[in-house]
Task: structure prediction
Amino acid sequence: MEKIVEVKNLELSFHTFAGEVKAIQGVNFEVYKGETLAIVGESGSGKSVTTKSIMRLLPKSSTEYKNGEILFGGKDLLKISEKEMQKVRGKDISMIFQDPMTSLNPTMTIGNQIMEPLLKHQKLSKTDARKKSIELLTLVGMPKPEMRMKQYPHQFSGGQRQRIVIAVALACNPKLLIADEPTTALDVTIQAQILELMKDLQKKIDTSIIFITHDLGVVANVADRVAVMYGGRIVEVGTVDEVFYNPQHPYTWGLLSSMPSLDATEEKLYAIPGTPPDLLDPPKGDAFALRSEYAMKIDMEQVPPLFKVSETHYAATWLLHPDAPQVDPPVAVIERMKRFPGSRYYEGNAGGVR
Amino acid sequence: MTTNMKKLPKDSFERITIDSSHAERISKPSLSFWQDAWLRIRKNKAAIVSMFILVFIVFMAFVGPFMVEHDPEDVKVAHASLPPKIPGLEKLGIFDGVGKLGSKTVNLYELKKVEVNYWFGTDSLGRDLFSRLWKGTQISLIIAFVAAVIDVVIGVIYGGISGYYGGRTDDVMQRIVEVLIGVPTLVIVILMIMIMKPGIWSIIIAISITGWIGMSRIVRGQVLKYKTQEFVLAAKTLGASDTRIISKHLLPNIMAIIVINMMFTIPTAIFFEAFLSFIGLGLQAPKASLGTLINDGYKFIEYQPHILFFPAAIISLLMIAFNLIGDGLRDALDPKMKD
Amino acid sequence: MAKYITKRVIYMFLSLFLIASFTFVLMKLLPGSPLASAAKLSIEEREVVYEKYGLNDPIPVQYARYMGNLAKGDFGVSFQYKNADVTTLIVKKLKYSAILGAQALIFGTLIGIILGMIAALKQNTVWDYGSTIIAILGISIPSFVFAVLLQYVFSVWLGWLPVGLWEGWKSSILPSIALAMGPIAIAARFIRTEMIEVLSSDYILLAKAKGANWFEIAFKHAFRNALIPLITVLGPVAAGLLTGSLVVEQIFAIPGIGEQFVKSISSNDFAVIMGTTMFFSVFLIVIILIVDILYGVIDPRIRLSGGSK
Result:
């Protein structure tokens, strides 16, 4: 499969007045053509920062790229000039932000805002750009697009605005669409509509999507593959089935156990103890160890490498080391693993793996 | 990767139990609101320098008049219009008592046979400008400070009642404010001064008669914002009295914005006092304030610019210092706070 | 919107009514009332004064007449200027004040906007610090101190420009600069804060994500959004200019309203003081009203919500 974007060993820090925040500490992933990769994690885990660094949208004054490369179309996006980057943004890679209420310019008609990338990147004439914008608005399901073109953002509801933002993002048929929690700020019913729209549009225009979210329900709905981020690193990556039904990292276990489900038998919802690590002073070793009941001595000393679980599935935990003791994940996770062929709890498999 | 791993000692993989409360530990020392604000304002060099300047000026305003043997209000015609003379600085060619007499440049102290030194010179009536300057600064500061305190007291009470009780009370009180806010400060200040006899108190009253309105609006807005917040509702549910809610829950939260606004009210008051004195509605001689001193100095600007220079410099420094401290406080207490 | 404007106009008239009543009470309270001043006047002049004010009538009648005259734009007669009509006097002096005020407002705001833009776009550089220092000085240094300084340096010392009096446009340069310091400082600070806030907003990030370049970000997207709220400071700026004009005109001996007003204060010319006071009040109140309405009309964000600001 063709790789659209490949992030290699990305490391970056923010310089704040409190000190150096090591926001990303060596992140590797790739996005294939036509797929949706979901990046999940708590706030501050570095998921937004990672994608913003693909777009180079982080504040120049405080951001320091310490290492790594972001390969896109044969070029390292971290090396090209700002001018070249402007040609990539909005044309080859575009982005949808979390809050539709603030991501549109309040003093510009939405028509002008949709036409902007068309005029800029595709060099369309004003009439053609208008025509294309109306098409786009129809595509994202906006009724009466001709009339709506002349209106200002405050005349639209949150869901409608997110449709407009999506129309802007799709204007130039980007190869990669980055959606940074596009449904978090919306009502649940609207969320579903927007997710359906995005899935629908992806099929129509064949774009790859990086979908950032902290909502595992959304992930199951839209993603092909999932990367779980914690403390500025990817701790587990795999297909949706692999991560949901054969999770290996204790943090993923925690996330999955804390997800409410209708068929859950326990009354009490699981909560991961503690708080995310302070990236001003990141802990030595496995950042999650302090919050993990599965911690080992080595977790306090060395950062675990990514262990291979399958061709598509990797996890960064010392538990996967051949010398590590066998541990049982939480009950809720075992329940999930029972359904995954190849996991050691798979019930279809006679006698299990153990 | 695997070779590296092989080397790991066996006991590395021993399970350890981590006290999960350890993960909850707060890595930063707990700071009170004001401590945190102080830590932030300490980084603001302009505000810190301003604080030193302000402390110096305030100190001099109260000690300065006693540093020389001359009384700020003593008229001594024989010693009129002397240039500044500070012993020790004479050799540098400044503050050497040399001034113009007609078109000649002469040492006026020798000419007039004046034995004593006037550090900043004297005015046309022979009053010592050094002690007058600090006495005037003192009066200006007192006027500004008292006016600011009155603004805060009335503003907090009015805005607090209006915001806290709401409903009809608020309606009536806000209608009054809306009419008053239309009245230009300049106009009302001048009219007030004209009715009252010129003096410290009439200037204070004139400045505060409309000054409290801005503060009351800010306080009302803040009270409205906080009184619907959960912690106040919780206190109410627990049966706290109005007095307790206001003093323990509301006031501490709006304190910051009150202090910041006071930092901007004081320079405004200093300006209005000086302004009134400059257009002849201020204090009457022999009393001095920064405004009257500037007004006096302006009359002699062509030949004795130093008379104007000192009070003009002090008032500018004071205004700059207050504004910078106000800016610094605003940034330190709440970077998002705009009005 | 119409309801809002009506409400605001009603408040405007209430404020004016309050000021007018206050000045009337003041006239009755003042130790040197028109009667005392009239003693110095000739018989004919005294007749005019008596006639004009109907000073023998009961107070309520006088009050009603005074308010009626004001409504017609008649501010009474000056005692100092051989019973010159105050309204005519104000109109005659208005020209000079208006020239100074307009020059200070237009150039001051423009320079302020430029400084604020530079500061925001080059945040935390020498440019930013420079323009911030200018803004702090402009806000802090009283206009009369600045005016005196300008006069001393450019007129007395260097002799480049007239020391005072109105001798054509050249005379307006220094007083206009002195007055412009306020608008420069206020506009620069305001635009800087607004621009920085706008530049950190999500829609600017989205514009960047669309591939907009630096110029498009700054001018197409950010500038308009930062500029619109600047209208709100027009009220305080106008008030500042008016306050400044009283002293600046006096310092440069410009025959404008401000200078006239200060002169009338020292000569106890009450009719002129009252008339000018009313004129100033109307001027400021109307400006604030226009600003509020304008803001509601221009900003699409509040166009429909009826301008709650």
